[in-house]
Amino acid sequence: MFQHIEPYAGDPILTLNEAFGKDPRPHKINLSIGIYFDDAGKLPVMRAVREAETAMLQSIGPRSYQPMEGAANYRSAVQQLLFGADHEAVLSKRIATVQTIGGSGGLKVGGDFLKRYFPHAPVWVSDPTWDNHRAMFEGAGFAVNTYPYYDAATGALNFAGMLQVFKGDGDVKNSSAIAAGSIVLMHACCHNPTGVDLNAAQWAELIPVIKARGLIPYLDIAYQGFGDGIAEDTFALQALTAAGISFFCASSFSKSFSLYGERCGALSVVCPDAAQAELVLGQMRATVRKNYSSPPTHGGQIIARVLQTPALHAQWANELSGMRERIKLMRQRLHAVLQAKLPGKDFSYFLTQRGMFSYTGLSAEQVDRLREDHAVYLVRSGRMCVAGLNSGNVEATAVAMAAVLA
Ligand code: LMR
Kind and range of the H or E element at 53? Predict the structure, then answer.
């Protein structure tokens, strides 16, 4: 019956992480999956999370189904964190937010929703982007194209190329220009996989183009707080809202709360007014019902409790700030050792790229050598999870990288 089913080739990130787990070499270093490990190489349980969860255990109550859109306190906390409690769009109730199964669940619900109401709009993603973006939107039935983003020669953003394609200066038919009304998927901060973000001036130049051409922005914000700060990392959301643009935003707490397995995310759609937000919310609820009925309770309630208890909120922000600063320190240390070992090469991209990831520029073959000869795991695209570096492995990583680059 199932003989015709082809074997699964595996996922470039998740399967690699599984391979790391099976690697018997004691000195192995995992810089593959986007998970933050602390300086002892451990997956942290944040103190704010532990306190909130401990308090919850004191008053265990019945657990019915959640509403299709998720818990009201969680959805409200999401909006306040993304936009600010006093933001006009929040106060006027023109943002439709549903609790989703991770940021991925948000992307999927939004993808299905868009396919229903904008069935002919192609989706454009950055070149490169998170491996699963293309798969998710193709899975929702969209044609997916790529716009220029990363400049391998400089390790920075190819903003001129990106802007040109957004402006539609090219041939729409051969997919070298974005047609008006297309869906443009963008990373709000800490671009995955490159660590290369637009700066404020670049957003300011891009946003009028998005507006003039009636593009539908779809932001993915999975690393809020890992770039410049919790509020600072929402710059793109603020700027799009201020420009009066309606847009989609999938968000995730996996990294920022170190609650990966709880699958806590959201989809927020900024609408022109409260009446339209109500319509959008209704059909998002229907989309959730058709996919998985309703989201789970526990993780979302931990997050809502932390964000809505001032002392825990402050503690969480402080812990997240420590994580962000530790990643920056690791960037500096990696850069210093590599630069000393290979003075002829420029590794300054490690300092300018931000968030959990850096695009090392290593070829797939060099990544394979790193893994096979030195037990250092990177994704084959050359993406390094800088958040996997620590005082005990950063030197060895730099030495191994220098060896494969020499
Ligand atoms: C990553 O990019 O490594 C993470 O977002 C984990 C994943 O699901 O791919």
Answer: helix 47-57
User: Taking a C-beta distance cutoff of 8 angstroms, is the pair 66, 294 a contact?
Assistant: yes
Give per-residue burial for 113-139: e unless 16+ CB within 10 Å, then b.
bbbeeeeebbbbbbbbbbbbbbebbee
Spatial contact of 31 and 388, defined as CB atoms under 8 Å apart: yes
Mutate to test the pocket of ligand 1, among 43, 130, 255 (most ligand atoms within 8 A of CB): 130
pTM: 0.96
Q: Give the three-class secondary structure for 202.
A: helix
pLDDT number for residue 172: 65
Q: How many CB atoms lie within 10 A of CB 378?
A: 26
pLDDT-flagged residues of the chain (< 50): none
pLDDT, position 173: 66
Give the integer Cα–Cα distance in Å for 59 and 45. Answer: 21
The residue to mutate among 20, 33, 383, having the most atoms of ligand 1 within 8 angstroms of its beta carbon, is: 33
Question: What are the helix (H) ranges across 153-192?
Answer: 159-167
Q: What is the pLDDT of residue 176?
A: 79
Please give, one letter per residue, the 3-state secondary structure of 126-146: EECCCHHHHHHHHHCCCCEEE
